[in-house]
Specification:
Length: about 180
């Protein structure tokens, strides 16, 4: 095994990336619950699109990274298997889709800002008066989700540069997967 591949698997940034994935999963589930209070109408269903894309993205990355970790530790496969230098979180599609999903959440954030400002002029009566804070809380969680996904993308780019040894090159010019 390549010593650089082993250090890339256990680096501090790689652990932070995994924590950000778990935080994003928690934020996705909480945001889905908050969005269900108004059946997604307050964000014009953009939150639901963000939830769907995020769940697919996060669960896929968590399963593939767990599989890679098991292979690195030697629990599965032959002892002489070649370890890829880049983990699934450091590859270009993962970085691209993280920023794309962050843009979807930013769109949901914008729509929630609009609806919270617009619906604040109406009189909330009966049981709906108790639900007045839900869109504002959903707005806060959408903003947190954008921050988590952008942080994830930036950390992945930095870790990719470190692993490939190309700190001064652009992220899209970092060569093949090796």
């Amino acid at each position: 095994m390549d010593a650089e591949a082993i250090s890339a698997a256990t680096s501090r940034k790689e652990r932070q990336i995994q924590r950000l994935l778990w935080a994003s999963l928690a934020l996705t589930i909480i945001t889905f619950g908050l969005s269900m209070a108004f059946l997604g109408i307050m964000s014009f269903f953009i939150s639901w699109a963000g939830v769907g894309l995020s769940l697919i993205f996060i669960i896929t990355l968590l399963f593939v990274s767990a599989k890679e970790r098991r292979q690195r530790n030697g629990h599965h496969g032959a002892a002489n298997t070649v370890v890829a230098r880049l983990s699934c979180t450091q590859r270009k599609p993962s970085i691209f889709f993280a920023f794309f999903i962050a843009m979807v959440w930013a769109a949901a954030l914008g729509m929630l800002c609009y609806t919270v400002a617009f619906f604040d002029h109406f009189e909330w009566v009966g049981g709906w008066a108790k639900m007045r804070a839900v869109p504002a809380i959903e707005l806060t969680f959408c903003a947190a989700h954008v921050a988590v996904l952008v942080t994830y993308g930036v950390l992945c780019v930095k870790e990719r540069r470190r692993v490939l040894g190309a700190e001064h090159e652009k992220w899209y010019m970092l060569g093949q997967y090796r």
